[in-house]
Amino acid sequence: MxxxxxxxxxxxxxxxxxxxxxxxxxxxxxxxxxxxxxxDPIGKVNGEVLSLNDFRSKVDLxxxxxxxxxxxxxxxxxxxxxRNELFNQKITDIGLSSGKxxxxxFISSNPNFYENERFLNDAGIFDMSLFSNFISELxxxxxxxxxxxxxxENDFKNQINIDLYLNMVSSGINSNVFExxxxxxxxxxLVDISFVKIPYQSIDDSxxxxxxxxxxxxxxxNPKDFKQEESRDIKYVLFDEKPxxxxxxxxxxxxxEMLVExxxxxxxxxxxxxxxxxxxxxxxxxYLEDNSDIxxxxxxxxxxxxxxxxxxxIFNLDKNRTYGPYVDxxxxxxxxxxxxxxxxxxxxxxxxxxxxxxxGSTSQISRTKxxxxxxxxxxxxxxxxDSNNFSTLALENSDGPSKTNGGDLGFFQEGxxxxxxxxxxxxxRVGRIGMVETEFGFHVIKITAKEDLVKVxxxxxxxxxxxxxxxxxxxxxxxxxxxxxxxxxxxxxxxxLRLEVKSQNNISRLDHDLPxxxxxxxxxQWLYNDKTTINxxxxxxxxxxxxVIAQLVDSKDEGLQSNEMALLNVxxxxxxxxxxxxxxxxxxxxxxxxxxxxxxxIQIINVDAINKNTPVxxxxxYEPGLIGKAxxxxxxxxxxxxxxxxxxxxxxxxxxxxxxxxxxxxxxFQNQLSSLYRSNIDFQIVExxxxxxxxxxxxxxxx
Length: 703
Description:
Shape: extended
Radius of gyration: 37 Å
Distance between the termini: 43 Å
Strand content: 15-25%
Number of strands: 20
CATH topology of the largest domain: Chitinase A, domain 3
CATH class of the largest domain: Alpha Beta
Helix content: 40-55%
Number of helices: 24
């Protein structure tokens, strides 16, 4: 109160001080630009700006309309924006455009519109004028809805133009007769071969040496194989705020105390008062409201609602008996069974035959009530004749939304369905098939399962660290941070304090979540801050409670991998090249398979019926070069020594079988190839355009 009084007396001075501080902040922001977020565009494609506002609207649309999380929305919006811009630039270059007719056809072909009742005329057909009227109403009465429609309309127009472009490209992609014949021969031309393999591993690694300059040259000669994206590597120590063993013991003790009545002396009444326990209270709902971290609910639950370790034991309880204390996730619990309903949950499937005028019927349903009853009886007879056909009949005949699930309604409790339907399923056994009439029409019903339900009361205390434990964790983290500031070596400091150091490599600029570290966008932004340098460290909060202290240990720019990064891939390849040279020199006098096998004390291997599509050769492995060499030889011809993936080979062609009769036409093989060429054409074109495009990505400045 004294503080409040002082504030009131000096309010004018306080306001003046705050005002000056704000003024100074704003003025400073004008000159240094730091008080406002960068106004760079979200990105550029070949110099064309991608609008930040449009991008934000699209992210918002994906989150609201598709329930994407923020990261999914950002990435999807970005991929779409880049794709559309790449296509639009190509489409503009060739002068391709679409018109009103294209848009109307696109809309009328979209099931989201042509299945919407508000856009159907009396004949049950999509009516463009009804749709246009709806958009006009949006514009006049729902500005936010109209804005979303405008975004969607623009997407439609872009997609129409892209579809036209893709159709043009696809129409020019075909295979010829020669390619069709080659495709036929790949599978039907067979060869038998004999070969000798001298594995690279037969030469000891100590006999070959690879220099750094050779590794560098290999990387430069094969740049596509060693591209690296911009990334950061960190080492970090986690300080999780977890309950201590003492915290858990105290929580268990507290829970146990709540199972016993307490007697306390009342200073006012001068009498001893008895306070009921969880086991003896007559007002279980009020007791749990005051004492439990999970509220009481009156819903009857199936066994599957409870965790698998405890469900069976809870269901086997007698009424008013308890199970626990037990651990369930982050809670310590005691559960009391209050009531049980045998067969209280029912699963059923139905086929709804509606009629004109029935509740929920659409304008497309014109049959009368009598016609509906006749149709329902017809289907009932079919189901009774073969109940296994129920889902197919539902899909073909039902007027209800569950038709797409074969009529399956899932499990439901008593009172959920309309009365006649409810009475049938709850009063009859599993497997019973019948028909009932409701206000929605006639239902052919099959009862598929029943299960028991229980109502329980659960006293739950959340297992969280005590204030003392949280303070201890904070102090340990602070001590670690202080020592790291003077030592600089995270491994040494952690070892001295008996803490575990973890590593995370290849963190990209737009990462949000890291393994074992969800929601660490701030950490990633810090890693990519221009002021952050190698060996810098920072403390961040963990969403589940606690801290992470991370140190930047490596920073990689976009480009080619370093020798160290590429070593594991490059070294074996260069070693094998040098081992191959040794094998060639040792065997230059061995000109036949037999000589080669005898000289190296190895066997000649025979493999039959290889075709050009054979991915792996028996006793050789993945060796595409061997297969290619086999089909290049004449019958009986032996190859020279050649290098493969895992060794040096010499092969002989023993038999070539081309006896499979060629078809009169290779049209089917041509068509297969054409379909293969056209498959995923969208992705292939976008990737090709990306490779030749200059793309500037500024997402990390805003998200």
